[in-house]
């Protein structure tokens, strides 16, 4: 990892000088990045190590018992409440990443292939809502889906329903809709970037060789844009597993996710080690799921060719 | 007109694009609509136009405090993360050294970590060290999540430009610092301002980290979160939300314009048109 370590003892004048030069370039670059690197090391890596350490300890009223135990992980993985929350969080994040990618792909395709001179304007238009406060966007869905909300009052005004429906808000579908909306823009960018890299002459070649537009899309464009699909899926999946605001505001009882349980352990329940174990478990499972997604999409890409 | 013809030419795809944009914008549009509605609950039909929810805002001391706190946190976080971002982006675009990718990956990691993990791990360390939670601890957390965005904006600005200009400056006898100040800095200034604006916007809107790392002081999102529990406070929140929306929109539009100008400038001056 360290740049200085690679400076081997040199024999002979020219080699020593070349090494010195190389080293000075390395040292300069490393010195320049080191404040940012140290910041991330101290405020990200160290804290995560502390969380991992806590996950093997036990809360003893106000103090923490530092004898090694796997009890927290047993609780996280086998107690029905946490197991259910973990499963639901994974299910919701999978659904959300599936829908965002499927909905985003045609838009990315449209901008890349038909955007013309206005590509960057389109991208700007699409990213603007993403930059507005996350809290406010979730709240606006509460306004839309609520009992006295926009959708219910609108549908009643049109005479389509007689009384407000309670099925819209406070369940996992509400969480999925809200998160799909919230992450939409994030999925478009990576797909767009990979579509931009698709060599247009390959698409033409496929057409010249007799593939119809749909076949040439399925056999050329889609497989070539797989890296974009992978990063879009991951960039949505990983953060949504740990989402706290959306389940709290629109999820109700049936939409609670793992982040809400983690927060409870650091707040009211005050069991840091269990909260830490839940966090580590979540991170590990997310990593596994992300890995599986990459493998599956790559396999599909190979099959398509 | 050309846009219009293209719009018709690409058929169902543009129809889909239009619907998608509607889906993206519609929920956001309800905030301003109901913030000027007289009824206290947001539902159709609208009952009448009023600005009273806006007029109440400056008379709420807790809100004014939260606004001030958000400004302090946002300005500190954006300056700090842009300074750290400049160092990292410069190092990544200018130098080659072993471990460059690994270090970059680590610095960018907050982008792909659930925010709650970042928040609780920082919380644990701060409490373990016996530090008290304050606006300062929020700034520490915000800088961590802002740095990746800052680096993304800045590397785009740094990568475009022609390194030979710097070499020319050095050959003509400028010191390294002089070259940076007189050649590099003017070229990348728009990217730096753009990074400041983007980081400020992120900090202004960030909730989870602030929620966990705050002491007694509330930032705007924390204030809004507190208000959401009371149904009667909703119109006020909608009015406040609309103002925040406008602020974010303006800041980001300026950031985007600057970014484009920077891209144009570095391309022009490095290319044939100089």
TrEMBL record, chain A:
Membrane topology, record value: Multi-pass membrane protein
SUPFAM superfamilies in the record: MetI-like
CC terms in the record's Gene Ontology section: plasma membrane
A biological process from GO: transmembrane transport
Pfam families: BPD_transp_1
Record's keyword annotation contains Transmembrane helix: yes
Bilayer-spanning residue ranges: 37-57, 90-108, 120-136, 143-161, 173-195, 216-238, 276-297
Annotated ranges, domain ABC transmembrane type-1: 86-293
Record keywords: Cell membrane, Membrane, Transmembrane, Transmembrane helix, Transport
Compartment list: Cell membrane
InterPro entries in the record: MetI-like, MetI-like_sf
Stored PANTHER family: INNER MEMBRANE ABC TRANSPORTER PERMEASE PROTEIN YDCU-RELATED, INNER MEMBRANE ABC TRANSPORTER PERMEASE PROTEIN YDCU-RELATED-RELATED
The family this protein is said to belong to: Belongs to the binding-protein-dependent transport system permease family. CysTW subfamily.
Protein name: Spermidine/putrescine transport system permease protein
TrEMBL record, chain B:
Pfam families, alphabetized: BPD_transp_1
Source organism, top-level taxon: Bacteria
Keyword Transport: yes
GO CC terms of this entry: plasma membrane
Subcellular location: Cell membrane
Keywords: Cell membrane, Membrane, Transmembrane, Transmembrane helix, Transport
GO BP, one annotated term: transmembrane transport
All copies of domain ABC transmembrane type-1, residue ranges: 67-255
Name recorded for this polypeptide: Spermidine/putrescine transport system permease protein
């Amino acid at each position: 990892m360290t740049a200085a370590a690679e400076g081997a003892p040199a024999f002979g004048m020219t080699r020593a000088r070349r090494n010195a030069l190389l080293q000075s370039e390395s040292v300069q670059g490393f010195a320049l990045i080191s404040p940012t690197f140290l910041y991330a090391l101290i405020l990200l890596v160290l804290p995560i190590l502390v969380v991992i350490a806590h996950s093997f300890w036990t809360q003893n009223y106000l103090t923490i018992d530092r004898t090694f135990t796997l009890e927290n992980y047993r609780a996280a993985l086998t107690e029905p409440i946490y197991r259910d929350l973990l499963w639901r969080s994974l299910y919701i994040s999978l659904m959300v990443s599936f829908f965002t990618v499927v909905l985003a792909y045609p838009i990315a395709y449209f901008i890349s292939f038909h955007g013309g001179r206005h590509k960057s304007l389109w991208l700007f238009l699409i990213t603007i809502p993403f930059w507005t406060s996350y809290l406010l966007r979730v709240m606006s869905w509460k306004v839309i889906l609520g009992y006295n909300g926009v959708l219910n009052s609108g549908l009643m005004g049109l005479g389509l329903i007689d009384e407000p429906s309670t099925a819209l808000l406070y369940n996992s579908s509400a969480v999925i809709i809200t998160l799909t909306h919230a992450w939409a823009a994030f999925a478009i960018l990576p797909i767009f970037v990979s579509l931009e890299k698709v060599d247009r002459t390959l698409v033409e070649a496929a057409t010249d060789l007799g593939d119809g537009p749909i076949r040439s899309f399925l056999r050329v464009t889609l497989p070539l844009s797989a890296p974009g699909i992978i990063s879009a899926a991951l960039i949505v999946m990983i953060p949504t597993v740990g989402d706290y605001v959306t389940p709290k505001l629109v999820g109700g009882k049936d939409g609670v996710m793992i982040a809400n349980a983690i927060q409870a352990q650091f707040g009211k329940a005050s069991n840091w080690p269990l909260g830490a174990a839940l966090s580590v478990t979540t991170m590990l499972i997310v990593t596994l799921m992300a890995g599986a997604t990459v493998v599956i999409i790559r396999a599909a890409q190979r099959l398509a060719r | 007109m050309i846009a219009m013809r293209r719009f018709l030419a690409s058929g169902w795809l543009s129809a889909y694009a239009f619907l998608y944009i509607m889906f993206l914008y519609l929920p956001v549009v309800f905030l301003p609509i109901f913030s000027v509605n007289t009824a206290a609950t947001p539902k159709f039909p609208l009952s009448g136009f009023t600005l009273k929810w806006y007029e109440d805002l400056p008379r709420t001391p807790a809100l004014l405090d939260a606004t001030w706190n958000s400004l302090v946190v946002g300005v500190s976080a954006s300056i700090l993360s842009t300074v750290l971002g400049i160092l990292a982006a410069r190092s990544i675009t200018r130098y080659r050294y072993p471990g460059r990718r690994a270090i970059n990956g680590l610095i960018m990691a907050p982008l792909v970590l659930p925010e709650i993990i970042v928040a609780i791990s920082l919380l644990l360390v701060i409490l373990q060290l016996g530090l008290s939670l304050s606006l300062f601890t929020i700034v520490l957390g915000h800088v961590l999540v802002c740095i990746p965005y800052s680096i993304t904006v800045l590397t785009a600005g740094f990568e475009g430009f022609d390194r030979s200009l710097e070499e020319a400056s050095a050959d003509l006898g400028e010191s390294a610092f002089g070259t940076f100040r007189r050649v590099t800095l003017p070229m990348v200034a728009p990217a730096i301002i753009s990074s400041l604006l983007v980081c400020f916007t992120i900090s202004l809107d960030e909730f989870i980290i602030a929620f966990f790392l705050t002491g007694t002081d509330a930032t705007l999102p924390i204030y809004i979160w507190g208000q959401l529990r009371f149904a009667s406070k909703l119109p006020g929140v909608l009015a406040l939300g609309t103002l925040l929306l406008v602020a974010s929109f303006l800041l980001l539009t300026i950031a985007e314009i600057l970014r484009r100008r920077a891209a144009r400038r570095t391309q022009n001056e490095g290319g044939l048109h100089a």
